[in-house]
Amino acid sequence: MSTPSPDTTGGIAITVRVDATAFLGARTLTVETDEVLATGQIVVVEEEMTTATFTCEPAVVRQGESVKISVAGSNTAFSNASIVPSVAPPEGVAIGSFAVQDATRASFSMQVTQGALVGLREITIVTGTQIAKGTLVIDQGDIIESPKISIEPEEIEAGDALSIRVIGEHTHFSDLSEVTIDPETDVAISGVAFSTATEGVFEAQVDELATGGPRRIIITSPFAAANEVVEATLSITEPIEPDGGTDGDADTDGDTDSDTDTDTDSETDTGWPCDGVFTLEDAILSPGQFKGRFVLYGEETDWDSYTSEIDFIGEAAEHLEVTYQSAFGPTEMLCIVATDVFAPPGEVLMRVTEDGISHCAVLEVRKEETIPTIVAPEGHVPDHRRYSGAVDPAEGDWYDYYRFNAEPGEMIIFHAAPVVDYQLDLDLRIVNEQGDTTIAQIDLPIDAEADKRIAYYFPEQTEVLIGVGAVDEEPGGDFNLFVYRMSHQIMLEETAEDNDTLDTAQVIGEPWPWVLYGTISDPGDVDVYQLTVDAPVGIDLIGHRLGDWPGSTADTRISIFDAEQNLILTSNAWNETPSTTDPRAYLEEAGTYLMVVEAQQGTSGFYAINVRATVVINEIYATRINWDPYVELLGPAEYDLSDYELCTFNQFGEPVDPNAPCLSLVGDMIGTSGYRGLHSAFQSTATLDLPPGKSGAVVLYRNGAVVDQVQYGTMAGDPFAEGEPAEIGELRAIGRPAGVDTNDNWFDFVYQGKSTYSGPNDWTYPTAVPPLGEPWG
Predict the structure, then answer these.
(1) Is residue 87 within 8 Å of 123, Cβ to Cβ?
(2) By C-alpha distance, which of 604, 610, 598 is closest to 527?
(3) d(CA 544, CA 553)
(4) Residue 3 has what DSSP assignment?
(5) Distance separating alpha carbons of residues 167 and 251, to the nearest angstrom
(6) Using CA atoms, how far apart are residues 151 and 162, in angstroms rounded to an integer?
(7) Which SS3 state, helix, strand or coil, does residue 478 take?
(8) Parallel, antiparallel, or unpaired for β 155-157 and 226-237?
(9) Can you say whether residue 213 is alpha, beta or left, with left for phi > 0 and alpha for psi between -120 and 50 degrees?
(10) How far from 183 is each of 158, 201, 250, 608, 736, CA to CA, in Å?
(11) Burial code of 163-186, b = ≥16 C-beta within 10 A, e = fewer?
(12) Please, which of 491, 587, 619, 730 could form a disulfide with 517 given CB 3.0 to 4.6 Å?
């Protein structure tokens, strides 16, 4: 470097010579004069844009997490002056707070939403003339369950070439995933493509002389430092010989032993509207069955998924429709037939036409549905009612329906549950009065491990049908339908906009916990509330998650001011921890506060506010079938739990561990995700060895005072219940959807299909949000 000399602009000119082998990156430049000491920075880069690589730690980020990522580069030239990080694809991921330690070390913050697409992501860092690339994995919030796959179809004939669809659970497919088949001597795999982390397709070409039998489909996907391997079975079969023929036979069971002619003169003799017949696997439907699956086997047919036309002939024809069809070859087709609630019993011809040639089978609508009415109480009062029913799909009895009349402005929770664990795989839906259009349907994964809840707001007088039904043919069984009618019409209909400033705040009730409903009437509307709390509290503002409900698209934001109108905090979906796509705030000090609710991005609609304890019991798992018992707490990230202790009780109301009735949480804290799982296997006492069964209790204390208590199942006098005890099965966990607390255990906790240990329960139960009501009981 040359000696500094003045230049014509009054500055200092310096000549810097960089060695060809100089290390890339930033350098600090210091210039000292008699009067001042000045520093600056220069960056050493290559002449042309080069490519380097780096690794991320952690290499896996879960949905809903906000984490700090450490970067370790290889031949990188990081510089604070010219850093441009990006992630692809960007949906559901935000990057910020980038910091550089030296040319090969950096860090940045990453926030991943609950709905972010899982799988491999590429991170790019541009600095000067260099592009550095690395990868990390976006994973599901709950990675306890092992990945698995299924394929459609599972069978392929020798000599055929078919597209095979892959459906994964807990998988991490990407462009780097590979599909192989074992043995591969007579089957060729090509055209592999994965559209998401759980969906893909490939082409399978089977040799004409291929031997029958199973083949292993193996999918290998890069996942962090290891490989994820999942398998499925593809069967090679001889060409399918359908049971049906062209001898004119068709009857109500879909076989071929009736006497209907299909000769060339049959149209004149009998009015038979088809040229031939086909067999129909499972030829029975009940009214309102929206998920009937039928496999059609034809002879001398030439069916195609896109050009085959399917229609129905008979009295119930207008009540049936095909919602999906897929041909597996010219003689085999899968289709899903839906019936509306009022389909009359009797026989219907199902006709498939291709190139002007039609084939028929007989479909029977067996059960005539009687629809009882759910009697509405007078006025708008909270109502908790139980209705019992039973379905037997083996006998064609798939659904029970209830007629329900909703008043304007009512919010209703419908909750369907099998009487016995694993007895029924339930479906729950709201259908219009005519029975031919679904208004709302639970979109949880349909499995026998979870109850089904739908929360719905009726903006006007509406008569609907509530359908509770089975998904699979076996088993049938009994169920209960619970209906919560809630009175929030006054809160939902703002008659005057007089609470839109800090000085005109509406004073809302105490003590907490409580739930308040309000409305953002237009994008410019602001609602201000004054609340007084006597202890630390948590506040959930639920708006964005109501977006699928009629009348609400509010993407809400919350701001908290103290009594002197000084802003304390602002929270929205982008900086909240844990991330639930809605704001969550915590107030640590007792006092009076002003709370401002507003909508963002031009949205409006109604919202709900839940004020509850700072730390609550969020999930209880009281079984040892698959995993040891645990209790999960919800609270502020990195919140000190030293003032708390957790006590557990068995079905007799006695301590689970008489020698240590309570677990002290001194030195413990809530995790960075906002959750703390207390697992029995990691404790030195037996306090968390919750006995498997249907009765017990968990009580959380703070400085000797009860903060939250959950009783599941009944005990003599229900000594630990808030409201009514929660219901729990022997094989399930229970949890609060959205962390909402109304001081009613039965209302606040639902069965969970799987553990959501150390994560939000509404990942699993989005359509149960919010199961909110005014406290009662």
Answers:
(1) yes
(2) 598
(3) 7
(4) P
(5) 36
(6) 12
(7) strand
(8) parallel
(9) left
(10) 15, 19, 42, 57, 48
(11) ebebebebbbbbeebebebeeeeb
(12) 491
Res 732: pLDDT: 67
Position 729 scores a pLDDT of: 61
Please determine, for residue 535, whether its predicted confidence score (pLDDT) is greater than 50.
Answer: yes
Q: How far apart are CA 594 and CA 591, in angstroms?
A: 10
Per residue in 7-46, pLDDT (tens digit) is 554 566 677 777 766 665 556 677 776 665 666 656 665 5
| Ranges of H-type helices in 191-288 | 266-269
pLDDT by residue (tens digit) across 36-89? Answer: 566 665 666 555 667 888 888 888 888 878 888 888 988 888 886 556 666 665
Closest listed residue to residue 17, CA positions, set 1, 28, 41, 40: 1
The rounded distance, in Å, linking the Cα atoms of 318 and 238 is: 38
Strand (E) positions, 521-566?
526-533, 537-542, 556-562
pLDDT at 539 over 80: yes
Q: Which amino acid is at 52?
A: A
Among the residue ranges 337-341, 463-467, 513-517, the one predicted with the least confidence is 513-517
pLDDT given at position 2: 52
Segment (H or E) for 414: strand 410-418
232 vs 32, higher pLDDT: 232
What CA–CA distance (Å, rounded) separates 631 from 688?
Answer: 8
Q: Where are the beta strands (DSSP E) in 282-345?
A: 284-285, 292-298, 309-313, 320-327, 332-339
Contact 41, 646 (CB under 8 A): no
Q: What's this model's pTM, rounded to 2 decimal places?
A: 0.52
Q: Residue written as tokens 């000549």?
A: 15
Tell which wins on pLDDT, 33 or 214: 214
| Cα 306 from Cα 733, distance rounded (Å) | 44
E strand segments, 11-112: 12-13, 25-32, 37-44, 50-57, 60-62, 66-74, 84-88, 93-102, 105-112
Residue 642 phi/psi, 5-degree rounding, is -60, -25
Phi, psi of 371 (to 5 degrees): -115, 105
- pLDDT-derived band of residue 631, with 50, 70 and 90 as boundaries? very high
pLDDT reported for residue 415: 80
Among positive and negative, which fits the CA dihedral 441, 444, 448, 454? Answer: negative
Residues in the chain: 777
Q: Is the pLDDT of residue 281 over 90?
A: no
How far is residue 474 from each of residues 327, 339, 422, 470, measured CA to CA in Å? 26, 20, 11, 8
Decide if pLDDT at 709 tops 90: yes
Q: How far is CA 189 from each of CA 185, 203, 206, 222, 552, rounded to the nearest angstrom?
A: 11, 6, 9, 19, 48
**Token pair listed for 776:** 């009662």
Alpha carbons 227 and 446: distance in angstroms, whole number: 29
pLDDT of residue 49: 66
Token output for 599: 């909508």
